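Here is this case:
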Amino acid sequence: MVYLDPMSKKLLDGAGSHGPLVLMYHSVLSGSSSPDWPWAVSYERFCQQLDLLVQNGWKTIRVQDLGNSKRYVPKTVVITFDDGYEDNYKAFEALVARGMTATWFVVSNDIGGGSSWVEPGVGSQSILNKETLREFLAEGMEVASHTCSHSRMPQLSNVELVNELNRSKQALEDILGQEIESFAYPYGAHDERCVQAVRDASYKYACTTRTGWALAGGDPLTIRRITVFANDSLASFARKLAFATNDVGFVSLARYYGKRVTQRLSGRG
């Protein structure tokens, strides 16, 4: 059983009524220690987060399910993983054990090899191979595109954009034998030109790193996500589910409750 402080528990109990929420993960490292890389989480903490979702009645769907409103009910969450790191396999097993689903955004050029892009303070990481991606698909997971090379899309020429989007889509379709519908912008970097290129490449859904409820912007090609960081406690994780934002520190909570009090007082006036 996962326990929370009373405030976070109360907030979590009332969460999930504003539409689906998308969570973003990257690396999941063995053990219980908090990783040094902010975008990694420990396997133990990841499992605790999954258990918190299950115990509080949250249902998981995939990004490709966001187009069907009948698939999501209050307390619907989409779990996503960017890049396709090999260390995600244990996270996959944890999800399967709980009857949960997720979406993996994979850099197609690096499948079965090492990450070719550079993350500050992190060396090249092993990337999931073809057989594992097929296994994910067989267990009801979604495998989707994260370009060919993890490039910052606004910096690419029009020709480069088309190549990154179309070649990664085709490569994954060849591996998996089915249409690839979803995409995530590397680094969350995108502009109107990039969004149009994604649309032209026949993707139906695309994830950004902008926070908020998944479909708050009204465009399925600019889906919003909440980042899960290495230092997130279970309480901060619960508050992220409640507020759909990365900033859930106590200063932000004080502002939130102060605003509510002001609104109530104004209503009485």
User: Anything to note?
Assistant: Helices lie at 6-13, 43-55, 89-97, 130-138, 158-176, 192-200, 234-243, 250-268. The first helix runs from residue 6 to 13. The longest strand covers residues 76-83.
